[in-house]
Amino acid sequence: DAAESLGVKTSNCKLIALIISAFFTSIMGTFYAQYILFIDPFTVFSLPNSIELALFTIIGGLGTVVGPLYGAFLLTPLDVFLRAWLGGVSAGLNFIVYGLVLMVAVKYFPKGLSGWINKWYTPLLQKMPGGGRPFQEEGPSFPSIAPSLVQASEVNKKSPFFSVQRLYKRFGGLVAVRDVSFDIKQGEILGLIGPNGAGKTTIFNLITGFITPDSGEVQFKGETITGLKPPHQVCLKHIGRTFQLVKPFKDMTVLENVMVGAFTRVKEASEARKRALEIIHFLGLSKHSNSLASSLTIADRKRLELARALATKPELLLLDEVVAGLNPKETEEIIGIIRKIRDQGVTIFMIAHVMKAVMTLSDRIVVLHHGEKIAEGRPIEVARDRRVIEAYLGEEYLA
């Protein structure tokens, strides 16, 4: 989902990965056939051989390019040694040794040899001249996120920039969204609130193509994008989003994560890197630019999620619980960042349970309850609406 939301056509990536894997496998199979001079499918594709290949990947490191190579370099000599040492005494004991090696690897090296090597290699790389210095640059802190938009003071706020009309979605016997309609004017911040299960994230998923609505229409800049699939097509329309549960690419650095989003708009790696570094600098992640995403705190992961979305140059940015789980200081910092983004001309549609954030930032608020819109208006109007108080805010909010 995260890759699709950044404009990555994942089906193509998977197909290319499969083709590359098949290419090298077929080449190696040809060499192997020439070596043994005889091909027996029951021998070549036997269970022991399949287990051995799986061990190469698991011990070397799942999800990595070099991991299987590390595994092969370790296990192939070990296999030859064990066959020579144990083969004449008790055939098959080598698989017991394999099992022990696998248990040790899973217990003490869960990311495989590649993860262990990277653990020691990355700090050394960062100590090298220029290897790990965070991005520092004088001058403007942030480039234009959406260059097609003018300054906020000149934005047209009279006509609907984004429109949802009678959106409806049912999951079996549950109606998640029922005839929801609202507009977003260009350059404004629209808040979306409601109790858990009200359908807020479902609305986001319907807009961004992760779910197809049963009926209704979604329009962006006068163009119907209802049910536009796959989701990367929505990103290409300059609609970005974050997720309620942050989804960083954990085995990639902060810089690499943001570059994934930047590649949606630029083709050259140097340009993607430049834009990614500028956004990282703007969001206060410079000191973490070469750190793995898995090492970040929840607050920094939220910033990273926001940075990736901004790298796609959105004109409409959907923020799903971007301040959830943050302390008051971190919340204030994110509120300030969102204001700066809006001042660049980016229209923002945000979900939030932190009332201070949504009431402070929003120009207007839409309230959902059981999939239905029960209120819409300025924050002060919504806060005093009896239906909103009963369904969500509670009487203590007015105290």
UniProtKB/TrEMBL annotation:
Keywords: ATP-binding, Cell membrane, Membrane, Nucleotide-binding, Transmembrane, Transmembrane helix, Transport. One of its GO terms (molecular function) is ATP binding. It holds the Pfam family ABC_tran. It is found in: Cell membrane. It comes from the Bacteria. The chain crosses the membrane at residues 15-39, 51-73, 85-109. The keyword Phosphoprotein does not apply. InterPro entries: AAA+_ATPase, ABC_AA/LPS_Transport, ABC_transp_permease, ABC_transporter-like_ATP-bd, BCA_ABC_TP_C, LivM-like, P-loop_NTPase. GO terms for biological process: D-alanine transmembrane transport; L-alanine transport; L-isoleucine import across plasma membrane; L-valine import across plasma membrane. PROSITE patterns: ABC_TRANSPORTER_2 (PS50893). Residues 162-395 form the ABC transporter domain. It is a multi-pass membrane protein. GO terms for cellular component: plasma membrane. This is Branched-chain amino acid ABC transporter ATP-binding protein/permease. It comes from candidate division WOR-3 bacterium.
